Amino acid sequence: MAEQKIGTGLKLALEMGPIAAFFIGYVMLKDRVFSIGGTNYDGFIIVTAAFIPLMILTTAILWKLTGKLSRMQIATVILVVVFGGLSVWLNDERFFKMKPTMIYALFAVALGIGLARGQSWLQLVMGEALPMKPAGWMILTKRLALFFAFLAIANEVVWRSFSTEIWVNFKTFGLTAALFVFFMAQGRLMAEHGDAPHDEDEPGQNGTGV
User: Strand, helix or coil at 194?
Assistant: First the structure.
């Protein structure tokens, strides 16, 4: 399927919508308990059960509209299904809380493997959207691998040490804000190593020197 462009607002809604819906659902149902088939499920488990198909649906829509999914998006959906499904099946919220840890740890390891091979796998994912010289990509990849490792550790500390409500707020706002701040902080790196495309009509670029 050929890659297609969609509006930034729609893309953001499809990517962030399920997270926003999870947070709203949790706030509404966190103090309620539902009896299904003789088993009691708290609001967190019910919201998790709803989040899984919503995540699959929005990802499928994104794929249908754009014609492609990144490896990160595919990995995220798989881990949501696996760890969210385990939480619902075993009625144990701990598995879903582990999901961000596994996602960020997986990304950190994947980027680290690429670096060990002298490659920036991040460039393969974001290269078209962010033109930058190879040296810049290597630096950004190293920083992001370390940052993902930090986020994995931070998630483990928060979900193991604090209440479910604090973890939900951390997951919804803390992790999102941390990623935003990280990429904003890379502005200088991107400016120094930016690889702007050359204009074919510039002197010397068309073979005539005119």
Answer: strand
Amino acid letter, 113:
I
For residues 97 and 22, give the distance between their C-alpha atoms in angstroms, rounded to a whole number. 13
Q: What pLDDT was estimated at residue 193?
A: 82
Amino acid at 111: L
Quick one: which H or E segment has residue 112? Answer: helix 94-116
Length, in residues, of the chain: 210
Write down the pTM of the prediction: 0.84
Q: Which of 39, 61, 55 is nearest to 103 (CA)?
A: 55
User: pLDDT, tens digit, for every residue of 52-104?
Assistant: 999 999 999 999 999 888 888 899 999 999 999 999 999 999 999 999 999 99
User: Whole-angstrom Cα distance, residue 81 to residue 77?
Assistant: 6
Type of residue at 21: A
- What is the Cα–Cα distance from 159 to 43, expressed in whole angstroms? 17
Tokens of 137: 């990509």
d(CA 34, CA 44): 10
Q: Write the single-letter amino acid at 31.
A: D
As a whole number of angstroms, the distance between CA 146 and CA 100 comes to 15
Write out residues in the chain with pLDDT < 50, as ranges: 198-210
